Structure formats: C-alpha cells, structure tokens
Amino acid sequence: MTTDVTKNGKGKAPVLVVLQMTGGNDFMNTLVPYTSGVYYDSRKTVNIAEDRVLSINDQLGFHPSAAPLKEMYDNGDVAIIQGIGYENSNRSHFRAMDIMHTAEPLKISTEGWLAKAITQLDPDGKNVLTGVSFGRGLPRAMAAPGVRVTSVSDIDSYGLMTSIEVKEQRAEELDIFKRFYTPAIGSGATMSYLQQTGDDVLAGIDRLQTVPGKYESTVEYADNPIAKSLRDVARTHIAGLGTRIFYVQHAGYDHHAVEMPAHEKLLDELSGALRDFMADLREHDAAEEVVIYAFTEFGRRVQDNGSGTDHGSGGGAFIIGERVDGGLYADYPSLDPKTFANGEDLAHTFDFRGVYATLLEQWMSVDSVDIVHGKYEQLQPFKIAQG
Predict the structure, then answer these.
(1) How far apart are the first and last CA of the chain?
(2) Is the pLDDT of residue 51 over 90?
(3) Is 387 a domain residue?
(4) Residue 39 has what pLDDT?
(5) In terms of Cα–Cα distance, which of 25, 35, 246, 14 is closest to 134?
(6) Where is 22: in which H helix or E strand?
(7) Domain membership of residue 301 as a residue range
(8) Mean of pLDDT values over 148-173
(9) Torsion of CA 117, 120, 121, 125, to 10 degrees
C-alpha cells in the first residue's frame, strides 16, 4: 500500500524535510516503556516517572515535554519508527552520523543519500534550490560531487548581508565542511567537492533573499534555533521556489551528564517547533505535500551513568505529515538483557536503510536501490491517496 504521489497536496510535488537530532537522542526517554521494571531498574536517575508519561498505550508513552508531538500523534499525523539501526552499530558520533548520511555502514562514501536523490529529482542541476539546508555547515547527506545545493544559516541574516559578507560566510561554512570531512574522505575528495560547489550556490542565496517579503503568517514560532530553521523551511516552501528536499539540524542530544533538564528542554523546543511548522503550512494550504523525517545517529545505553546516558545502538525516528498514517511502526527493542547489543544497548529491530527506501520510493518517487545500496524491507507509513 504505497501513496500515489501525483495526488499529494492536490497535485503538488512531494517535499521531504529531514530533521537531524544531533548527538544521539535518548529514545528510551522520548518514547518511554513506562510499565517496564527493567527500565526503572536500569535508570535510577535518568527516568521519567510513570505518572508523568503521556501514555499512548499500556506500555509506551511520550516524554511530558513532547506534549505537542503527542497531540500530533493523537491526530494521526506521526508515525513512530521504533528500533532503527544496523548491524554492528558504531558508537562514534562522527562515524555513526557519517553512516546515516551516506547509507553506507561498511565503507567510507563520498556521496550523501539526499544528494543522490537530488540527482534523480533534478538530473541536469537546473534548480540550485532543489535541495536547501538551513543551519551552519553543509550536512554530509546533501553533499556529493557535481550536486548543487544551497546551504545557509538562516534567511534573515543573508537578507541583510552585502554580497561580500555572503561570500565570506559561505566560505566559512565550506571551511567547516572541509575541516569536518577531510579526515574521513580525504583532502582530495573534499577539495574536489568544494571546488565544484563553492560559489555555485550563491545564485540560490540570491533567490532566497526574496523569500521574507513573500511571507505572512499568524503563527508565532519560539525563539530557538530549530524553530527558526523550520520557519525558514516554511517560508521557502510557501514561496514556491521548487525546493524538494530541506535539511535542518537540532543540536545538543549528547547527554552524558545532566540529561534530565537538558533533554526536557530539547524535546520542548523540538515538539513546539514541529507543531508550529505544521500549523504554518496548514494556514497556507501547503501542508499536504510535505513530510518530515526526524532522526538521530544512535540511541543511548539502557543503563544510566548516574547523571546521563552514554552512546548506545537501537534508536527511533519520526515521520510526520498529513499524508502519514500515524501509529507505531517496527518493534520497540526488547528490554530483555539477554537481547541487548554489546551487552548494554537496545538492539535495533529495523534497518535504517529500509526507512530511507520507504521515504524515497513511496513519498518522493525516487529509485532507492543505488542510494541505499540494495533492497531493504520497507514500511507502509503513508495513506493511500483518495479520489
């Protein structure tokens, strides 16, 4: 049962917004197994009391700070993908995120999964805004030799800059890319990419500078980075510039210490931003063609460390939108200690490449085999188009 994308959003082209929760979101404290003795025995400090959990059934419930996300889930707009991961999960931030960005767990790749999708969506590279990233630095998922994308920190700051300042900030962001990825893919591959894309995206930035003047909304977003980025996505999408893939990042999920207040703040920011983003799109009759995929590089360990949680394996993700058939997908990782990966992590129950294949093929009408390097079991998280 796959969606008919020709009927998404009254015939509008489907759009994918990828939201990265950077640092390794604690899935166990996001979707809490609140009736599990193992959960509370393992987490003496970093736990959500049963009477605070926003239950969705008799076993699982949302963190109380994720109330807006729970409301969207109750309305049928959120698919929770449980137990995402891959064999022999890598606990290194850099390598784990690199794997998630390239869909290649076994070797270093120079091609991001979304960049390869952009190649199919715009094979001649005619629209530099087919793929747009909001935030500092170009994400690896959007990078591949010969693929033109636009990456800006935010629309408003670019709109106030002179052309020289724009080029200076662009150079700074490309330098971030160079310093971050050269150790992994080598200076040759990195510089080759930078040489091909360095100034090309300035044309995209020029077009983005027109976006604020085309936008009005009654929705008031919060004053935090993820809310600002999603507002930029909404403004750009509503302006009709032909962007098919957006990328945003929400940082700070690496909670080795003081997790309780920090995670609560992040989930509050994330959930509120997602709620406002969807409300904004609906106000502009622009929601039906948009799907959000929110992911993280890995989950956290089952047992807390007294103040936070350390890097783990099986995690979770969310697919959000009006065309989403909300509910639970895949299986929540077993809490039986005999099943734990590495003896202390939640084991994954669904390969992340199957989620990518689901989004690419069923939502974006993009062939996924070359992108995810094979064929993987897919989910069925979309409603069948009516009419």
Answers:
(1) 15
(2) yes
(3) no
(4) 97
(5) 246
(6) strand 15-22
(7) 5-372
(8) 67
(9) 100
Going by DSSP bridges, is the β-strand pair 350-351/78-85 parallel, antiparallel, or unpaired? parallel
What's the angle, vertex CA 263, arms to CA 260 and CA 265, rounded to 5? 105
- 380 located within any domain: no
Strands of 61-62's sheet in order across: 31-32, 61-62, 54-55
pLDDT greater at residue 178 or residue 25? 25
Counted residue by residue, the chain has a size of: 387
Backbone dihedral angles phi then psi of residue 238, each to the nearest 5 degrees: -65, -30
Amino acid code (one letter) for 183: P
**CB within 8 Å of 285: residues ≥ 6 apart:** none
For residue 182, which phi and psi values (nearest 5 degrees)? -55, -40
Residues facing 133 on adjacent strands:
151, 247
Task: Report the domain count for the chain.
Answer: 1
In CATH, what number is assigned to the domain containing residue 98? Answer: 3.40.720
pLDDT at 273 over 60: yes
150-152 and 78-85 strand pairing: unpaired
In a domain, 383, yes or no: no
250 three-class SS: strand
Which tens digit of pLDDT belongs to each residue from 67-91? 999 999 999 999 999 999 998 888 7
Q: Does residue 265 sit within a domain?
A: yes
